Amino acid sequence: MPETRYLIAVAAVCCAITWALRALPFTALEPLRSSKAIQYLSTRMPAGVMVILSLYTLRTLPLTQVRVLAPLAGLAVTVGLHLWRRNALLSVFAGTAVCVALSSTLFAP
Q1: Cβ proximity of 81 and 91 under 8 Å
Q2: How far apart (Å, rounded) are the C-alpha atoms in residues 81 and 93?
Q3: How many angstroms separate the CA atoms of 63 and 56, rounded?
Q4: Model confidence at 105, in pLDDT bands (50, 70, 90)?
Q5: Which of 14, 18, 46, 99 could be cross-linked to 88 through a Cys-Cys bond (beta carbons 3.0 to 4.6 Å apart)?
Q6: Gap between the Cα atoms of 91 and 81, Å rounded
Q7: Kindly report the CA angle at 21 between 12 and 6, in degrees rounded to 5?
Q8: End-to-end CA distance of the chain, in Å?
Q9: How confident is the model at residue 57, as a pLDDT?
Q10: Rounded Cα–Cα distance for residues 76 and 28 (Å)
């Protein structure tokens, strides 16, 4: 069994590394707030992520089956809400809720 001093040293190193990794984002946050690139990405990224996720989700849908209507309805709700409210969180949650509700009820296998 390892010595007590060794175990204390290991625990101290683990604590120091954990603390440093948790503090790192806060030290890097201030310079990023004034960055033009980050400001540009913060306005463009939500729509870009939604497009990528939508394409990834819809790429394997069987277009000849009626169950394709659930994800397409979810996509329509997501796009419509995003164009109307410009709130990515609301759009994604509402579109997901519509898709899951339709998939679980009307278009359940």
Answers
A1: yes
A2: 10
A3: 15
A4: very high
A5: 46
A6: 5
A7: 15
A8: 57
A9: 79
A10: 38
Report residue 92 as tokens. 């994604």
Residue burial 71-91, b: 16+ Cβ < 10 Å; e: rest: bebbbebbeebbeeeeebeeb
Query: Got the DSSP string for the chain?
Result: ---HHHHHHHHHHHHHHHHHHHHHHHHHHHHHHT-HHHHHHHHHHHHHHHHHHHHHHHTT--TTSGGGHHHHHHHHHHHHHHHHH--HHHHHHHHHHHHHHHHHTTT--
pLDDT digits (tens, 9 = 90+) for 44-94: 887 788 788 888 878 888 888 888 899 999 999 988 998 999 888 898 899
**Residue 62 to residue 67: CA distance in whole angstroms:** 8
**Which amino acid is present at 1?**
M
Tell me how far apart the alpha carbons of residues 65 and 76 are, in angstroms, rounded to a whole number: 18
**Which residue type is seen at 38?**
I
